[in-house]
Amino acid sequence: MSAESITAGLGAEYAATASEAYRAALQVIESVEPRIADATRKELADQRDSLKLIASENYASPAVLLTMGTWFSDKYAEGTIGHRFYAACQNVDTVEALAAEHARELFGAPYAYVQPHSGIDANLVAYWAILATRIEAPGLAEMGAKHVNDLSEADWETLRNSMGNQRLMGMSLDTGGHLTHGFRPNISGKMFHQRQYGTDPTTGFIDYDAVAAAVREFKPLVLVAGYSAYPRRVNFAKMREIADEVGATFMVDMAHFAGLVAGKVFTGDEDPVPHAHVVTTTTHKSLRGPRGGLVLATEEYAPAVDKGCPMVLGGPLSHVMAAKAVALAEARQPAFRQYAQAVADNAQALADGFVKRDAGLVTGGTDNHIVLLDVTSFGLTGRQAESALLDSGIVTNRNAIPADPNGAWYTSGIRFGSPALTTRGFGADEFDRVAELVVEVLSNTQPAAGPNGPSKAKYILGEGTADRVRAAAAELLDANPLYPGLTL
Ligand code: DSN
Asked: Which terms are listed as keywords in the entry (predicted)?
């Protein structure tokens, strides 16, 4: 696999033009608010100078980034393609239609809705589309009405209440699920009567028999699969069978691994699109696009998803929909498949690097883009480990592990992801070296007491460790530059 094909997305081939564009843009920004121009330059420098291992982050191409800085930002376009509540949306129609077409083609989905601003927006559109299809539409028919506005106050109250307490089951946050999958503090845990499934306490893997038993007992209207911190693949065909047994709508949130689906690393039973009724994703994680979300749906759910505005959303971010179209076009290139395969291979190399250095991993390894390190094996909390790594130029995020004794704030885990450094061109050897550097930092970090006794946040990093690791990281970073040739 050639490094060039993987880093093609960074735009080395048009670096000179992009440099001119950014220099001009920064000059214009500087004339209005120089501190923002400075922060923008500093952000690039910081991203260039650190090992970014946050599993949900990536580096979008200059083509994607530049697409967001245009006058499409100024346009209101509530409604759908060709059916807007505002005039003069002809160019937004072009943009939205192209983004949706790329999404449909890339994922092989019958329908795509590209307006959601984020993952949570996409999930809310999906949830309300499911409620509209499964509860509201039959309720309206039973009441002999075509539209909710035709109902009496009393009938609307009855119908509205019937949507308010439906059942949803998703993966619990501490076993790797997302907060929008029924976590009580999130709107999904409040608008649904929710219950969660977890993972096997011994292996850390999803136990499909246990999920099936829980689903049979709870009989959810919606079964959600997908994760933010589960380092393994999911058998979506099996999950669909489980959903079908109780007549549940099967929804998959592929926000984390959409790039692996797009790049055909996840195929067959591991590709959610042929198995789910509704699939949601963000566009900025392994998919490497702009920040945003989208929803894919079967013909059955498409009409309700298409009403995302006004159901959940207001005006779409037309400039971001344009950038989604560019990113999805990039993801349809053959080079993206090589990138996606490298993301999976590199995560594997990182996990192997930890295992051979005796660091404890949740599930013992990975077969996606995530590696979840249990830092209790170093006598640390996630918070202490995250801070010590950051001091050493390694950017990660602390994350709960199953049945985490330190809770969701301090945590006992560090989540690593391979998408961003793979975009820079890192390969398996570099990821093994990253594992070595992480272990070096954590082995040289001690928990420390605060002024009031034991602390889950304070730590002492061995003298010289941060400098030593930063120097070693710089060698890797210099050999794999971020936005090669781009100068401000
Ligand atoms: N914040 C994203 C993640 O890190 O997984 C999802 O919300």
From this structure: Transferase
